[in-house]
Every structure is written in C-alpha cells, then in structure tokens.
Design brief:
With about 375 residues, the chain is an alpha/beta fold. The chain is about 25% helix and about 25% strand. It has two domains: about 200 residues, Quinone Oxidoreductase, Chain A, domain 1; about 140 residues, 3-Layer(aba) Sandwich (Rossmann fold), CATH 3.40.50.
Length: about 375
C-alpha cells in the first residue's frame, strides 16, 4: 500500500510503498477512505509531539471499510464502515475495570500511543523494517491495521469523508464541552481559538445548551464560521490585545466556562482570567513539552478550576456513536468543517495550509 511517511522532523512527508501483514488476534485491516489532517500531525512533523518517532506513518483521524479481521474479532466484520478512534482502552487494567476508561494508561495504551500492538510489534514494514502508524492508526495511508478496540462501527449512510473527523478533532472539541467541562444549559462560555477543534468546542457548547458562546480568534474567516456553528458573539483579536479584557467587555463578571484551544500557555492564563468566581477553564490545546502556565495563586481561592483535556475525555464506544447521532439529527454540522479534499499525493499541501492557518480541515482521500 501507499502511505505518507515522516522520515525526519521538519521535512515534507514522502509517499512510500509499505508492506502490510495480515491482522493477528484482536486486530482488523481497514481500507482507509478518508483521513483528516490534524494539528497534532503537524506537531509530530515539527518535533513537538511526544509520539513523534520517525520513521512513522502519520494520520490519526481516519475512517474506512473493514477488509479483514483477525482471530477473535467479533464487533466488526468485512464490509463494515468504521471510524478509527484516537485510542482504544485495554479493558483489563484497574482503571478500565472500575469504569475510568479515559484514564487507561496500561502498557497496551502506551504501545497504542506509539503505534504498536499490545505485544510491542507492528504489522507494517518499510523496506523490510518495522514502521509504526501514529497513535496506532497511521491513517494517511491506503490501509491501516488496528486493534478492534480502536474501531467504532457506524451507519454506512454517513459519508466517510465527514465521519473521519470524529476520530480526533470533533471528538476532542465536543468532549471538552460535554465530558470535561460538563457545560450546563443557560451558561456562558468563551472559546479562544476557532480552528478545527475550537469550532467543535463551540458546537459542543451549543449542544449542551449554553446561552452565550463568545468566539475569539485572530482571523475573521474563522469567526464567520464560528458564528455559523453556534457562537453568539465573535471577537476579532488584534496582536498584543488582552483577550480576557475583551471577553469581560461582554461578560463583566466573567464567563462560566473558558476554553483555550490553541496550545499557547499565555492564552491559558487569559482564558483563566476571563472566568467568573467559581468558573471553569479547560486547556484543550496541546502546549509544547516543558512549557508552564502562570496563574495568580490567590485567584484559586475564588473556587476557580483549571482542567486538562486529553482527547476530550472520550470513550470511543460511547462518544463516537453520540457524535454520529447528533450529525444525523442535524444538531452537529460536519460539512462546514471540511474545506478541502485532496489525494494522498498532495498531503504536504495540507500541512502547508495548516501552517498558514488557511483551512479548518483538509481531508485526504487515498
């Protein structure tokens, strides 16, 4: 099969022929139909991701059709349409057995992060040598071999070039609002950063029934899209401008919830300062390793909360079907998130557009 391989950080991806082995016990071979290009993929290219270990097949936001299943697989069969989730819980560790599935950090989950099967091996070979797929998916390719636990079967009526977004960006954004912040109906919220994930934080707040959703970004085009997807107020932020002050010009006491969706720690501070007494801030963006968030410790006495957010706190088998239902019911818009569709050969164009902030989501169709 052909795949987009990262040989070195800070270098364009190469389209390579990769050998694919048959799926083993508990594994599934998927013919990839579409894969979103996420900023986490760009972080890997820029050497800012903990899972960036070249050579590696990038892509972790995929959807496709099951081609073959290994021994013991019961939940999916050849011909099924599936979304490849960001991770798959092990199901056997203490956290999984107690129901704390999102905090599964077993050896299986660790291997998954680095693109390996539970036994530490991979089903992919490049020039005879093992190669991993990002987050166990490697979806910027024609095929992917993944654990059954990482797949969610979906209605075949749902377009796969839209369903793939539920693999990461949509699930993270919706989950930040519904799972992490647990947004209440009638509340106020601010979202800093209206890219692919931020727009879904906005949609998640709208689904939760937030009465006021303040979108903040430096690009008017993204704010226009935010307005279409549920934002009630849009703030165009100029360089050097205090975002918290702009938010408080609309909500003087501060908002109930603030979401930082850029991955820039000074903006986490701005989000925190924009919340009211007793408010909640969620850090959705992934800052570079080693960076620090500065908070005036006295403000914590006002019962404000600062929460982290790994993938929207999602449980694939619960959250991806919920997202698909919202799409089919018309309460979640996926069409507006996809601005460009390109073939695998042009995958580097997607990263150029992402660096320039020119697109929300580019979908690669192998």
């Amino acid at each position: 099969m052909r795949a987009a391989v990262m040989h070195e950080t800070h270098k364009p991806l190469a389209i390579e022929e990769v050998e694919v082995e048959n799926p083993q016990a508990g594994e599934v071979l998927v013919r990839v139909a579409a894969s979103g290009v996420c900023r986490s993929d760009l972080h890997a290219i820029e050497g800012e991701s903990p899972v960036s270990m070249p050579p590696m097949i990038l892509g972790h936001e995929g959807a496709g059709v099951v081609e073959e299943v290994g021994p013991g697989v019961q939940g999916v069969a050849p011909g099924d349409h599936v979304v490849i989730a960001l991770y798959g819980p092990c199901g056997t560790c203490g956290e999984c057995r107690s129901g704390d599935i999102t905090n599964c950090w077993s050896e299986t989950r660790t291997h998954n992060m680095y693109g390996r099967m539970p036994d530490g091996t991979t089903r992919l070979r490049l020039n005879g040598q093992p190669i991993a797929g990002m987050c166990g998916a490697g979806s910027l390719a024609e095929q992917s071999v993944v654990r059954e636990a990482q797949l969610v079967k979906i209605d075949p009526e749902i377009p796969l070039d839209l369903a793939c977004l539920a693999g990461c960006g949509v699930t993270t954004g919706i989950g930040a609002a519904l799972n992490i912040a647990e947004v209440r109906p009638g509340c106020s919220a601010a979202v800093i950063g209206c890219g692919g994930v931020g727009l879904n934080v906005i949609q998640g707040n709208a689904i939760a029934g937030a009465a006021r959703i303040i979108a903040c970004d430096t690009q008017q085009s993204k704010l226009d899209l935010a307005s279409d997807l549920g934002a009630t107020d849009c703030l165009l932020i100029a360089p050097g401008e205090s975002i918290s002050e702009r938010i408080k010009s609309l909500a003087p006491a501060g908002v109930d919830y603030a979401f930082e969706v850029v991955g820039h720690t000074p903006l986490v501070t701005e989000a925190f300062e924009a919340t009211r007494t007793g408010g909640t801030t969620v850090m959705v963006g992934a800052p570079p390793p080693g960076s620090s968030v500065t908070i005036d410790s006295r403000t914590l006495f006002s019962d404000r909360k600062l929460l982290g957010c790994m993938g929207g706190g999602n449980i694939p088998a619960r959250d991806i079907p919920r997202i698909m239902r919202h799409y089919q019911q018309g309460t979640l818009n996926l069409e507006k998130l996809v601005e460009t569709r390109i073939p695998l050969e042009r995958v580097n164009d997607a990263f150029d557009a992402l660096r320039a902030g020119e697109t929300v989501r580019t979908v690669v169709q192998p």
